[in-house]
Structure formats: structure tokens, C-alpha cells
Amino acid sequence: MSDTRLLRVPGMSCDHCIEAVESELEAVAGVESASADLETKLVAVHGSALDDASLRAAIAEAGYEAE
């Protein structure tokens, strides 16, 4: 069963930001895809058995903070 999580990442300001966040999230176990929207500052993460702490850690690894 697939799950979707939305996380707000207000520090994203350019395409490089999006690429960094999506790349780190897609390396997390269970994540099938991640899609960031620069205008809304939201990241949609799709996958199964998604762990909120792991998702937030991946965003931190990219250099950003999730709200």
C-alpha cells in the first residue's frame, strides 16, 4: 500500500534546492518518489512504510529543515 506525506521545507529557494532535497529523500528506504514544489515550499513523498524521522533526517542531510 502506497502512502504520501507532505512536508513543508521553507528554506528551498532554487532548482538546486529541489534537486538536493528530492535526491536525499529518494535514498530513504521505502521512498518511491519525492517531488518538491518551489512555489508552495511543499515536498510530496510517495512510498510505503514511510518513517517521518527518516524523512526529516534526509531533508536535514540536504541542508534544510522540514516544518
Short description:
By secondary structure, the chain is of the alpha+beta class.
Distance between the termini: 25 Å
The major β-sheet equals:
3 strands, antiparallel
Number of domains: 1
Rg of Cα set: 10 Å
Low-confidence stretches: none
What class would the helix/strand composition place it in? Answer: alpha+beta
Tally of separate helices: 2
| CATH level 3 topology | Alpha-Beta Plaits
What is the CATH C-level name?
Answer: Alpha Beta
Q: Write the element-wise H/E pattern from the N-terminal end onward.
A: EHEEH
Classify the helix fraction into a percent range. 25-40%
Give me the side-by-side strand order of the main sheet.
1-3-2
Detailed description of the structure:
This protein has 67 residues and is of the alpha+beta class. The chain has one domain (3-61): Alpha-Beta Plaits, CATH 3.30.70.100. It is built from two helices and three strands, in the order βαββα. It has helices spanning 15-26, 52-61; strands at 3-8, 31-37, 42-47. A three-stranded antiparallel β-sheet has the order 1-3-2, covered by helices on one side. A hairpin with a 4-residue loop joins strand 2 (31-37) and strand 3 (42-47). Helix 1 packs across helix 2. The longest helix is centred in the first third of the chain and has 12 residues, at 15-26. The radius of gyration is 10 Å and the shape is globular. The model has no long low-confidence stretch (mean pLDDT 96).
